[in-house]
Specification:
Oligomer: single chain
Protein name: 3-oxo-5-alpha-steroid 4-dehydrogenase
Shape: globular
Family: Belongs to the steroid 5-alpha reductase family.
Number of helices: 8
Main location: endoplasmic reticulum
Bound molecules: NADP nicotinamide-adenine-dinucleotide phosphate
Largest sheet: 2 strands, antiparallel
Number of domains: 1
Strand order of the largest sheet: 1-2
EC number: 1.3.1.22
Strand content: under 5%
Number of strands: 2
Organism: Sarcophilus harrisii (Tasmanian devil)
Length: 255
C-alpha cells in the first residue's frame, strides 16, 4: 500500500531507491565501465573533463531553476537553506572545479555519461524541490543533534573526498596516464578513500535532512561506489605485488 502522502517526490525517491541496488549489482557483475575499466561496448568515449563537467552540471542548474522559477517558500527557513547550500556546495566543486583538475583521465563512454547525466538531473530536482517547496522543519531543527551531527559528517566527508581526489591526481605528473599506489590520508587504511568520503558526506546530509529523499540518495551512492571500490581493490592487488595487504576496501579496519 502507498503512503497517504504519496506524490511525485516520493515516486522519484522510490525510483532512486530501486535503481541503487540494481546499479550496484550490475557493477559487481559486469564491472564499473569508466576510468581504468572503460569499455567500447558502452559507446564511444567523450573527453573526460567535458563529460564530468556536463554530466554533473544538472545538480547545479536544476536547483538554480527550482530556486528562481518556483515559489520556493520553504527557503525562508534556515534548515532548508543550509541543507540546499550543502548540496549545491558539493556539486559546485564536482562540476565546476573537479573536472578541470583531472590529470590524464580516461574518456567516459557515452552510455555512462548519459546515465550520470540523467541521475544528476533527477536527483538535483528531487533534493532541491524537496528542500525548496516541501520540507518542513521546526525552528529548533538546527539545534537538533541529528542536524548538527549530520552537518559535521557532511563536512568531514567533503574534506576526505576532496583531499583523497587530490592525492590521486598528484600521483601523475602532467602528461602521465598510468596508475600508482595511493599513499597518505585515509588511503593508508582503505583503497577507495575518495569514495569513503563521498559516502560519509551523503549519510551526513541524510541525517541532517532526516528525509526519504536524503536517505535514498545516500544509499544509491553507497551501492554504486562500494561496487566500484571493490573492483578497484581487486585491481590493485592484481596489478601491484607490493600493494599494502592490510588495506581494506572502503571502511577502515572492517571492509
Ligand atoms: N555520488 C556518486 O554516486 C558518485 C559516483 C561516481 C563518482 N563519484 C565521485 O566522483 C569522483 C571521481 O570518481 P571516479 O570513479 O572517477 O574515481 P577514481 O576511479 O578513484 O578516479 C579518480 C581520478 O583519479 C585518477 N586515478 C585513480 N586512481 C589512480 C591511481 N592509482 N594512480 C593515478 N591516477 C589515479 C583517475 O584517472 P583515470 O580516469 O585515468 O582512471 C581519475 O582521474 C570521486 O570523488 C567520487 O566520489 C560520486
Amino acid at each position: 500500500m502507498l503512503p497517504a502522502e504519496f506524490g511525485p517526490l516520493e515516486a522519484l525517491s522510490f525510483l532512486i531507491g530501486f535503481f541503487g541496488p540494481i546499479s550496484g549489482a550490475l557493477q559487481l557483475a559486469v564491472g564499473s565501465p569508466y576510468g581504468r575499466y572503460a569499455s567500447a561496448s558502452f559507446g564511444p568515449g567523450l573527453p573526460g573533463k567535458l563529460a564530468w563537467f556536463v554530466q554533473e552540471l544538472p545538480c547545479l542548474l536544476v536547483p538554480l531553476y527550482v530556486v528562481t522559477c518556483t515559489p520556493a517558500q520553504r527557503l525562508s527557513l534556515w534548515p532548508n537553506r543550509i541543507l540546499l547550500a550543502i548540496f549545491i556546495t558539493h556539486y559546485f566543486q564536482r562540476s565546476l572545479i573537479f573536472p578541470f583538475l583531472i590529470r590524464g583521465g580516461k574518456p567516459v563512454p557515452i552510455l555512462v555519461f548519459l546515465a550520470a547525466f540523467i541521475f544528476c538531473t533527477v536527483n538535483g530536482y528531487l533534493q532541491s524541490q524537496y528542500l525548496s517547496n516541501y520540507a518542513v522543519y521546526s525552528d529548533n531543527w538546527i539545534k537538533d543533534p541529528r542536524f548538527i551531527t549530520g552537518c559535521a559528517m557532511w563536512l568531514i566527508g567533503l574534506v576526505i573526498n576532496i583531499y583523497s581526489d587530490h592525492i590521486l591526481r598528484n600521483l601523475r605528473k602532467p602528461g602521465e596516464t598510468g596508475y600508482k599506489i595511493p599513499r597518505g590520508g585515509l588511503f593508508e587504511y582503505v583503497t577507495a578513500a575518495n569514495f569513503s568520503g563521498e559516502i560519509i558526506e551523503w549519510f551526513g546530509y541524510a541525517l541532517a535532512s532526516w528525509s526519504l529523499e536524503g536517505i535514498v540518495f545516500a544509499l544509491f551512492t553507497t551501492f554504486t561506489l562500494s561496487a566500484r571500490a571493490k573492483q578497484h581493490h581487486r585491481w590493485y592487488l592484481e596489478k601491484f605485488e607490493d600493494y599494502p595487504k592490510l588495506r581494506k576496501i572502503i571502511i577502515p579496519f572492517l571492509y
